[in-house]
Structures are given as C-alpha cells and as structure tokens.
Design goal:
about 260 residues; 9-stranded mixed β-sheet; 6 helices; binds manganese (II) ion; alpha/beta
C-alpha cells in the first residue's frame, strides 16, 4: 500500500465522494439503557445525566462545561471482551488495552428488517447468516458485522425496549450463529440497533446471553444502540468505533461513524 490510499480518502472526504454517516444516538437522560430482569436486579447501570458547572456566568464568565455521569454501557456504546466472565482472562481485553486496530474495520450489514418486524423475538439463525454469505460473499477479516433491524426507528423508549412482564422482546441471535461468527470468522465483533447485543429474552437462552458469552469469550467486541444502519451499503463501508480509554473499562459510550462511498 502506498499513501495514495489515504490521499484518495482525503480527496473523497473533501469532495463528498466519501460520506461520513453518524451511527450514534444522542446521550440524554431519556436515552434507553439496558434494564436486566428482576433476578439480576442487584446491579443497576446509571442513566446518562449532566450537571452544569458554568455557562458564561458568575461560576465561569467565559466558559461553558458540564459534569457527566453514566454507566459504561449507555447509549451507543462499545462492549470490550472483559465485559463478560468468559473474556475476563484474555489479553488486551479492556477499553484501555485493546489494540487501536480493533477500532476500525470494514462493515457488513445483514438485513433482518422484515424478520424483526414480523417477530420482535426473532433470533438470527446460522442458515440465515450463511445464506447472506452465499449472496454477498464471505465476511471479510477484521469486519464489524452489523445486524440491521431498523429497531432504532422505534418512536418511543417503551417501543424500543418493548418490555412486558416476561422481560424485553427485541431481536437477537441463535447461539450457533454467534458461535460460528466467534470461531469461524476473523471479525472484530458485531453491532446491533437494540439496547444490547443479545436478544431481549437472552437471559433464558443456552448459554444465557449467547452473544456476550461466545463473542467476548473469543476476544471479540460488541456495539449496541447503533442507528442509521439503513444508510450503509451491504458491504463497502468502513466503520470507526473508538471507546474512551477507561482504565480496565468494560466498555464505553462511543461515537460510531461509518465512511460510505457515494455513487
Ligand atoms: Mn454493553
């Protein structure tokens, strides 16, 4: 590779031939966060909040700034392998030690909009994934595998979390699908539009929370609460997701962007 690749990118960004698409939600007190079933209710993630320090006033005449507070897994966010017990002993598994090469890679988009619309508890099967590959090619090395459901377009927090007395009802994965991605494909990780990388009913799957269990156990990462996946091509975009460098962090809110060729 010569630096012509990067020069072409710079020219493309300047001309608009390469568009930058924001895949992130806005952080506010209303940003939906994962609420675990009651039996896991002993630990709660803080919703996002901010407190004004000063705003060009007697607390600071020339400057505006805030204190902020939230759980690591709030809004559009990065899951590091150390997030799960299966990834706890892996090398370079936390937000501060993950190699930065893992923060950028080709994005592939698997469209399951119709399936998720038809069944909120839809679980992507291995056959579904393999039929995607037979149409679009083998998932490339270093890819982010994005699971498009258009779930991010739900109009309210209630519709987005879609909870009833049995818990959340949002799409996810068959365990064998994530096992295949974790073991047979050399990917960075998977990204979803829902509040977490697993299905709403994943506490009852075997293993429970299979995407977390199997992906993090294979030193792979996750992205949750993505949006605008409908603005990405099936293949051909580059995704950039760099978590905050929290010492031994399990994840972090993240501004996720995609570079998308136009025309
Ligand atoms: Mn998470």
């Amino acid at each position: 590779m010569t630096n012509a690749v990067l020069m072409d990118l710079a020219v493309g960004l300047a001309s608009g031939a390469v568009k930058v698409v924001d895949l992130s939600v806005t952080l506010s007190p209303d940003t939906p966060i994962l609420e675990l079933p009651e039996e896991f209710g002993w630990g709660k993630s803080w919703p996002f909040s901010k407190e004004e320090i000063s705003r060009y006033d007697d607390r600071g005449p020339a400057w505006y700034w805030n204190n902020i507070k939230c759980g690591e897994h709030t809004g559009t966010h990065f899951d590091a392998p150390v997030h799960w017990v299966t990834g706890q002993d892996l090398p370079d598994n936390a937000t501060d030690t993950l190699p930065p090469e893992r923060f950028i890679g080709p994005a592939v988009v698997i469209d399951a909009v119709a399936e998720a619309d038809n069944d909120p508890d839809f679980l992507m099967s291995l056959d579904f994934l393999k039929s995607w590959e037979s149409e679009n090619g083998t998932i490339p090395d270093g890819a982010w595998v994005l699971y498009r459901t258009d779930w991010s377009k739900k109009g309210s927090k209630e519709a987005y979390l879609n909870k009833d007395e049995t818990g959340g009802h949002t799409p996810g994965w068959d365990p064998e699908t994530v096992a295949f991605l974790a073991q047979e494909r050399n990917i960075i990780g998977v990204g979803v539009e829902t509040v977490g990388t697993d299905a709403g009913q994943a506490a009852g799957q075997d293993p429970m929370f299979p995407c977390h269990n199997l992906m993090h156990g294979a030193n792979k990462c996750g992205l949750a609460s993505l949006r605008n996946l409908d603005q990405l091509p099936t293949t051909g975009a580059i995704l950039i997701a760099a978590p905050l460098k929290i010492e031994q962090g399990s994840g972090s809110p993240c501004r996720v962007i995609a570079l998308v060729p136009q025309g």
